[in-house]
Amino acid sequence: MIPAATAPPSASPPPFTPRRGLGARAGDLILSDYFVLYLSIAYVAALAPFLPTLTAPGNIVNVMSNMWPLLVVAIGQTFVLAIAGIDLSQGSVVALTSVVGAMLITTAADPAVLAKAPIWGLVLTEGGGPFAGLMGGVGLAVMAMLLVAALVGLLNGTTVAVLNMPPFMVTLVGLITISAFAIWLTQSENIARLPESFIKLGKGDIVSVHIGAKDSPQIPRREVYSFVTYAMVIAVGVAVAAHVLLNRTIFGRWVLAIGMNRRTAEISGVPVRRVIIAVYVISAMCAAVGAILYSARLEAGRPTLGGGTFLLDVIGAAVIGGTSLFGGKAKIIWTFFGVLFFVLLSNTLNLMNLSSFQVDMVKGAVILGAALLDVLRTRLMQERRR
Amino acid sequence: MTDILTLEGLTKDWFGVPAVSDLTLRVRQGACLGLIGQNGAGKSTLMNMIGGIVAPTAGRMLWRGQPYSPASAADAAAAGIAFIHQELNLFSNLSVAENLYIDGFPRRLGLIDWRRVHARTREILARLSLDVDPRLSVGNLSPGERQLVEIAKALHNEAQLLIFDEPTTSLTARETERLFDTIAALRAEGRTIVYISHILGDVRRLSDDIAVLRDGRLVDEGPVDAFPVTRMIRSMIGRDLGGLYPPRTAAPRPRPVLEVRGVTQPGVVEDVSLTLHEGEVLGLFGLMGSGRSELARILFGLDPHQGGQILLDGAPLPAGPRGRIRAGMAFVTENRRDEGLMMEASIADNLSLVSLREFGRRPVGLIDPQALSARTEAARTELAVKAGDIAVQPVKALSGGNQQKVVIGKWQMSAPRLFILDEPTRGVDVGAKYEIYALIDRLAAAGGAVLMISSELEELTGTADRILVMNRGEIVGGLDRAAFSDERILSMAFREDAA
To answer: Which residues form the ABC transporter domain (chain B) (predicted)?
Structure first.
């Protein structure tokens, strides 16, 4: 029985609200959707006096450009985590689609570098890829990248949903074989010389700001800062679409329902298998969009993209945001803030001139802290329900 | 007779809200005390104080005349008090003997003396006439056998007072009988029993004295002879219910809704045929393992069947639950926690799960949040779910009865033709049971058909228009309401095959 809880929720505010203690307010803060954003702001505010370069326009531009590709990939991972799954193959999909896209549109290939690759002669020649110089060739290459990713996602999803294999196993096998396949395709070489219209997707800016003295007619390049880039527009567009999909559509409710309790969802008529397959397709396609942004920024297709600690960054960012590894609890806005915090963290550690090993050690500790925070949140929620 | 346990003015406040207040109660040595009360009446808090899990705010306890204030569960066990819980506390991956000795193995030369462990376990199991190997892992035992292992553990710890908390929820009728025989044997050895259950008939049958808790207070107590079931219920809910079951408000109509013809799945159900009409509540009774729940799963498309036909409103059904939901079926399974609800999700999200499609706009299925929340709020009002803000409060925080109302409500929102209810009142207290029976009557009166499965015969005779009896996968007979007789139904359900 719940005696005191029958008051209508829409009642007018009570005439007297008792003052809430510090503990209760701290609890509100931790449970807020914006907690990680506040944390990021506090982090920047605390470090800014010691690291003057942190808030310099050049660094802000740098932080943002690091954010967009990671955000897109982490959004895909958020959907998978929401159904209590995990997609370890995302990094390898970034690598494969980067290679696939580049080999189709590269304008010239160096036989001294790529002649040993199995794609040489088949797809790639000295004159570049099959879509090189073609009208709409970049568009076709992007479609091809998305298609390859969708096929990988379909394979992952079908294996998980229909054969009931654990997603950790399925996507780990994907990670190993797909990244090896990508490296084999080019014999570990990069494919450079991508067309300008493709590179623009990663580096091109739409709105730039000139910060500096306005005395000379020529503006030096290093004083122009790109604030609105194509990468930003693409990433924010994906984020908004993903937010609507997860929070405002039937599909999104189904995703969260499956993460919460798959048996109940099945018996209640949710098309569980179809939704699981769709989620893995979304995850892989997000990885492909990430691959577009990364390859365009690098101006090359690179088969070792998405390796190393990339997966740590993706899953770490989603979890720091507040998405639960146990499923059923996920928001795109959480992932957005998680990515922001994670990129800021990497950036500040780099500014402190720490080695990449030291950076990874700190990142690991921060992810552990995020997991502890999740436990704290859960306990707070339970206490408040009493 | 002396008192083995005395509670004097026992009180427990949770942040100023009393869960148990000023409770004075005596448990007589060698007797069986039946303790009853609705969910939230304070039974669990009381048991936790006796068991050393929580400390009382005021009052004291006497154990065999000496002041008793346990600081931990181990203190209670050392004093000789054992709890047999509804959720069993055994390690299913360990053997029977290991479970008995988990808190201390006898050693010889620094190694565990397995010979002594197994010999002593065998001896205790023999006293309970449980014929299993002490080396068998507990995971291989039936729920009834596991319960006996719990009791064996209590005997191993020389418990003098055994407290049973809803011990029969997961037992078959036969296992329940065996448990009751064991309780009688324990009493013959001079041990004292406290028996807590929602099944009032069982409490009356086993107990010498009855004590009733309500809102944390002892509201009634007395010898069992002066305690008919009507008095038990009146004391528990504080008013007369006017009978245990609401009256039926409409009669079945002749039009058939569900027609099952010769459905067969080898080893599960055999040649099952039945017809269910508009406005009818059809009870399906059978012992555990008789195929009643399995039949329900086949009808809903969760499990396959090889032969026979299932028609809804005269039309054959598509395979699988999704097609059958669209055709107008609803299924409240016996396992609310794992198959009925998303425990962590809000009440509103649970209510809307089945009928989400109705609130989506093409092309991407964008949900209309106003329409959806208006609809879930209407469902909550209609079901009288006692909760705060249904968009925020998780179903986990609801009582069993209110949770079950949410499960029924989520199906009701899709306006189905046929409801299959499997054990709809399991783990639900008396007051909420009445509300669920009234809800079932409303479903039927609105023109739906209800197939109600239960192992409590009394609730079927109280609510159904007709009862069919299953035995070993077959329907062995049926009775109309006018001809209901517990004896005839039970004899059909228990009948053994000649073969």
So the answer is: 5-240, 252-497
Residues B153, B295 share a domain: no
Contact A248 B339 (CB under 8 A): no
CA distance A269 to chain B (A): 5
With respect to residue B432, please indicate whether it lies within any of the assigned structural domains.
yes
Residues B160 and B306 occupy one common structural domain: no
Pair (B141, B265) in one structural domain: no
Tell me the whole-structure pTM to 2 decimals. 0.79
Interface of A with B in 321-340 (CB under 8 A): 328-329
| Same-domain status, B135 and B282 | no
Residue of B nearest to A258 (CA): B342
Q: What is the dihedral of CA A72, A73, A74, A75, to 10 degrees?
A: 50
CA B364 to chain A, closest CA, distance in angstroms equals 7
CB contact under 8 A, A263 and B341: no
Residue in the structure block whose two tokens are 């569960």? B73
Partner A contacted by B147 (CB < 8 A): no
Question: CA–CA separation, A263 vs B323, rounded Å?
Answer: 17
Q: Is the ipTM of this complex over 0.90?
A: no
Average pLDDT rounded to a whole number, residues B23-36: 92
The answer to whether residues B264 and B305 touch, using CB atoms and an 8 Å cutoff, is yes
Instruction: List the beta strands (DSSP E) in B77-118.
Output: 81-84, 107-108, 111-112
Work out the angle at residue A206's Cα, subtended by the Cα atoms of residues A202 and A208, and round it to the nearest 5 degrees.
105
- Encode A137-201 in three state secondary structure: HHHHHHHHHHHHHHHHHHHHHHHHHHCCCCHHHHHHHHHHHHHHHHHHHHCCCCECCCCHHHHHH
Domain that residue B406 falls in: 256-494
Find all residues with CB under 8 Å of B290, minimum gap 6, and list them.
B470, B471, B472, B473, B493
B-interface mutation test, from A1, A275, A378, most B Cβ less than 10 A away: A1
Residues B261 and B176 in one domain: no
What CATH number did the domain enclosing B93 receive? 3.40.50.300
Measured between beta carbons, the chain A residues lying within 8 angstroms of B356 are: 250, 253-254
pLDDT digit string, tens, across residues A273-294? 999 999 999 999 999 999 999 9
Q: How many CB atoms lie within 10 A of CB B369?
A: 12
B275 touches chain A (CB under 8 A): no
Per-residue confidence (pLDDT) for residue A214, from 0 to 100: 65
Chain A hits for B387, Cβ within 8 Å: 2, 5-6
Distance CA A97, CA A144 (A): 8
- The contacts found for A307-310 with CB under 8 angstroms, 24 or more apart, are A307/A91, A307/A95, A307/A179, A309/A360, A309/A363, A310/A91, A310/A94
Residue A269 in contact with partner chain B when CB distance is under 8 A: yes
Listed residues B237, B271, B291: the one ending a domain? B237
Per-residue pLDDT band at B281 (split at 50, 70, 90): very high
Tell me, yes or no, if B302 comes closer than 8 A to chain A by beta carbon.
Answer: yes
- Domain assignment present for residue B243? The answer is no
Of A317-326, B104-113, B374-383, which gets the smallest average pLDDT? B104-113
Q: Say yes or no for a CB contact (<8 Å) between B342 and A6.
A: no
Whether A1 sits inside 8 A of B40 (CB atoms) is yes
Say if residue B405 is in the same domain as residue B351.
Answer: yes
Residues 323-342 of B with CB under 8 A from A: 325-326, 331, 333, 338-342
Domain count, chain B: 2
Q: Among B237, B267, B287, which residue terminates a domain?
A: B237
Structural domain includes residue B250: no
A251 inside 8 A of chain B by CB: yes
Looking at beta carbons, which residues of chain A come within 8 Å of B344? 260, 328-329
Q: Search chain A and give the residue with CA nearest B38.
A: A1
Within this chain, do residues B217 and B289 fall inside the same structural domain, yes or no?
no
> Quick one: CA dihedral A253, A254, A260, A261, positive or negative?
positive
